[in-house]
Amino acid sequence: MAQPGNKPVFAPWNDPSKKPLIQFKNVTKKFGEFVAIDNLTLDIYAKEFFALLGPSGCGKTTLMRMLAGFENPTSGTILLDGQDIAKVPPNKRAVNMMFQSYALFPHLSVANNIAFGLKRSPMPKQEIPARVEEMLRLVRLEQFANRKPHQISGGQRQRVALARSLAKAPKLLLLDEPLGALDAKLREDTQFELMDIQEKTGTTFVIVTHDQEEAMTVASRIAVMDHGQIIQVDTPDKIYEYPNSVYVADFIGDVNLVKGRIGASDGEKYSINWAEGQPAIKAAGPAGIAPDTECHFAIRPEKVAIAMEKPTDKPNALQGRILDIAYLGNVSTYHVELDNGIIMKAQMANNRRISRRDLTWDDHVWVSFTETAGLVLVK
Amino acid sequence: MNFRRLFLIATPYFWLLALFLVPFLIVFKISLSDTAIAIPPYTPTLDLSGGWASIKSFFSELDIENFIFLTEDSLYWKAYLSSLQIAGVSTLLTLIVGYPIAYGMAQSSDSWRPTLMMLVILPFWTSFLIRVYSWIGILSNEGFLNQFLQWIGLTSEPLTILNTNYAVYIGIIYTYLPFMVLPIYSALEKMDGSLIEAAEDLGCSRLSAFWLVTFPLSRPGMIAGCFLVFIPALGEFVIPSLLGGSGTLMIGKVLWEEFFNNRDWPVASAVAVVLLLILIIPIILFQRNEQKQREADQ
Fold first, then answer.
1. CB < 8 Å to A99, chain B
2. What is the CATH number of domain A12-247?
3. Please, are residues A76 and A25 in contact by the beta-carbon 8 Å criterion?
4. Which of A224, A378, B62, B281 lies deepest, with the highest CB count within 10 Å?
């Protein structure tokens, strides 16, 4: 990652002297026969905005509920600030959770919802109103203090839930699909607001989501999960540009996956034989993959160029026919059927009005990409 | 064009008019009449064949002396007060017995709920009268309860329960329990389980989470249940006359005796009209509670 000048980079995970705030050590959770979390080890650092991303049923919610204290691991340990929290009940943990349904108390006003946790904390009674006021200001709901939850909008409810869970200044805030109930536009605004609040309060956030775009936007690091295991943990850009497996590449964003076998190799450069009578794809990958290994070549559609003429400057150029064009406003995605029937997606930014009029259905075109544009994945 | 709508609205109103307002007016009219040894046992009766003059004399004969009589004889206001007390106490006891049952039902797994619900409703399959009679067999001096208590050695002498107010309380609690359990259950059942988790997450123990979240959220159900028990219990007649003793004073029983033993229809009607007026207050409060609940649900 290119970082500007000498500005300090927030990357405690690269600093061996930093102690993680949360440590999962070989944690397994079973519900009867079903293994929800499978021997999982993970470190999360203070002040991180950490996203657990995966399809439903992958174990991300279970992981979070174990942090909140609603579930206990079947085996393994979870450390919070170096302390085993297995025996600590939810009401004694310095962890607060924002529920997917918000779980606002319908019989209490907005202000009393926010004060609920404070009243059960050692905080002196006379300091509570000031703290509630402060939280209301943080989420910009000062004028709604006396409303009941059913008298405010969904977006406002979401902010009350956030304020309530932050009021006790927890070491760790858990967010369970916090934006799931909001519409697209509001969700986008709220994502930035969440990041803002996370920065202001300096709280460690762990967010559970199935929305990869949301995870990419808000998180400092993302853990991609599947079947109770973590497949990859990395920063959003690394996850996107350097997925470690076909699963991650496919789960995050759009990708072209071509199955093939490693042919000739030269250090980190490989040529991949992927189809009879087609030129081998030249691509970069991790060193040391044995020849004839079965692999996938993965390339993002925006890294594939499309042209009428065969480009001379790209090492990889394949001929095909335009099958479909998806016009998305800012970009267009072309589905190009290669000669052997494989479909490759190529994306072009529509940076001129009515651009690319020259490409249309059934045109014979060339798709091309550089050696480093794609990845060789063996997992 | 609006005939259809008019018809839809008119139907329930007609129903109320025919089955509630008209009978009430008849009872009210009888309460203003005098007793007579006749069929029906009161005067005056409206005779339209006499024309305008007979209608006029009919109205001139009506008076409120029966209501004045109710205030003069201490039996009546004592019966009203005693009914209020018995209904109030047994409503409270029904709440105490019913709440844990409703809570247990709401906490049970989804597969058990229909069965438990069935068990609550099951007594309605038998006649109410038969069920109250069977309590005589349980509560009498030689009944099952006393036999059991003596068998386990808790008492040596049989307890006198039947024909006391205790038996009336037991009868009312038993009979009206489903009316208490069902509204509380429905309030608890629709409660979002994550509210309790949220309360615990914010520092509540299990008990305080129940007290601060579950209990206030089930209040509309409790209020509804209390009215559903209190209102019919106030005018209850069968239970006090079968299970209660001579000392049990309830207005429903007084009403019965006035009607059938004394054949004093006008005084009995006056008792009924006053009872209805007393009941209107809790009924209005009940409706307000329901209305508020509906607004909160939206």
1. 194, 197-198
2. 3.40.50.300
3. yes
4. A224
Q: Is the N-terminal amide bond of B40 cis, ω within 30° of 0? A: yes
**Mutation target among A107, A128, A176 for the B interface, most CBs of B within 10 A:** A107
B194 touches chain A (CB under 8 A): yes
DSSP string, A243-310: -SSHHHHHHSS--EEEEEEEEEEETTEEEEE-STTSPPEEEE--TTPPTT-EEEEEE-GGG-EEESSP
Please compute the mean of the pLDDT values over residues A118-140 and round it to a whole number. Answer: 92
Which of these ranges, A115-119, B35-39, B168-172, B200-204, has the smallest mean pLDDT? Answer: B35-39
For B196, name the nearest residue in chain A, comparing CA atoms only. Answer: A103
The pLDDT tens digits of the residues spanning B206-235 come to 999 999 999 999 998 999 999 999 999 998
- Choose which CATH entry (3.40.50.300, 1.10.3720.10, 3.30.420.40, 1.10.150.20) describes domain B73-297: 1.10.3720.10
Residue of chain B whose alpha carbon sits nearest to that of A68? B201
ipTM score above 0.85: no
- Read off the DSSP letter of residue A56: T
Give me A31's structure tokens: 């519900």
Q: What are phi and psi of B40, to 5 degrees?
A: -70, 160
Of A42-56, A179-193, B85-99, give the lowest mean pLDDT range. Answer: A179-193
Q: What is chain B's mean pLDDT, rounded?
A: 90
How many Å from the N-terminal Cα to the C-terminal Cα in chain B?
32
Q: What is the pLDDT of residue A2?
A: 45
Angle between helices A184-201 and A154-166 (to 10 degrees): 20
Q: By the 8 A CB rule, do A316 and A368 touch?
A: yes
CA separation for the pair B50, A262 (Å, rounded): 117
HSE, CB side, 13 Å, CA atoms: give it for residue A275. 13
pLDDT in tens, A161-208: 999 999 998 989 999 988 877 788 888 888 888 888 888 888 999 999
**Which range, of A153-162, A286-295, A300-309, B270-279, averages the lowest pLDDT?**
A286-295
Does any CB of chain A come closer than 8 Å to the CB of residue B201? yes
Please state the domain extents for chain B: 22-63, 73-297
Q: What is the pLDDT of residue B4?
A: 87
Q: A7: pLDDT confidence band, cut at 50, 70 and 90?
A: low
In the predicted structure, residue A1 carries a pLDDT above the cut 50: no
In chain A, % helix, strand, coil (3-state, to 5) comes to 25, 35, 40
User: Any idea which fold A254-377 has?
Assistant: OB fold (Dihydrolipoamide Acetyltransferase, E2P) (2.40.50)
What tokens appear for B70 in the block? 């109710």
Q: Which residues of chain A neighbour B192 with C-beta distances below 8 Å?
A: 101, 103
Chain A residues close to B203, C-beta within 8 Å: 91, 117, 120-121, 168
Q: Tell me: pLDDT of B238 over 80.
A: yes
Q: In what order do the strands lie in the sheet with A294-299?
A: A281-284, A269-273, A256-266, A294-299, A375-377
Please answer whether residues A231 and A244 qualify as being in contact, where contact means their C-beta atoms are separated by less than 8 angstroms: yes
Percent of chain A with pLDDT over 90: 42
